[in-house]
Amino acid sequence: MRDDLAQRGLGGSTIRHRLASLxxxxxxxxxxxxxxxxxxxxxxxxxxxxxxxKTPALGDHQxxxxxxxxxxxxxxxxxxxxxxxxxxxHALRREELCKLKVRDFRHARKGVPHLKVSGKGGKxxxxxxxxxxxxxxxxxxxxxxxxxxxxxxxxxSVSNNRGDKAERAITGDGIDKLVRDYSxxxxxxxxxxxxxxxxxxxxxxxxxxxxxxxxxxxxxxxxTTRIYDHRRTRPEDSPTxxxxx
Length: 245
Prior knowledge:
Elements: H1 2-7, H2 12-31, H3 60-67, H4 75-90, H5 94-98, E1 107-109, E2 112-118, E3 124-128, H6 131-144, H7 172-185, H8 193-205, H9 210-217, H10 222-226
Antiparallel strand pairs: 1-2, 2-3
Helix pairs in contact: 4-6, 4-8
């Protein structure tokens, strides 16, 4: 059975999860006397991976340079600055950023501006809006002229910003190209997901509570969030240096 799953091109993590689910199902069926044995029992699972994130995270100085990379006074540069800030300060998936509407930028909770994010599985989360991002998005909307179009896409392709295609959002590929172009100019080409990894890693490195980071990222399982937590590998964070006699 494991070989069949592997032949379908499934990764080790997916195979482990499916075998575990099947094992639980057959264990239940055995308890109910619906089957005589558990065929999954004894099937070897693929080895677990190290748990280290495969997506690179930028250092603080690289993130700052990237935020400053769009320097022109054009609508495109204003949009790109707002997009990069939204990704680096709110850790959105690129699909989540593409789905943002103008109205999603207008929320407030207890007097604090929030961003409404439509995540995986139809789950919605509200993220406090970083003041710098807030200013950059407002600058972009003022220049682009669609700030009153509440139902329209927040971030749009510059060529589609007016006319019949005004509500068409920038695509995920467009966001990825944007990040790759600016980062390549700075000497470290990365994709859009690296900015999510950067935000998560940075927050954890600066002592953000991991449960809060899990909620912030929209992760169902905290194990996924731990991939971004590199504190356990830093010598200065070892319990060795916390012990005091």
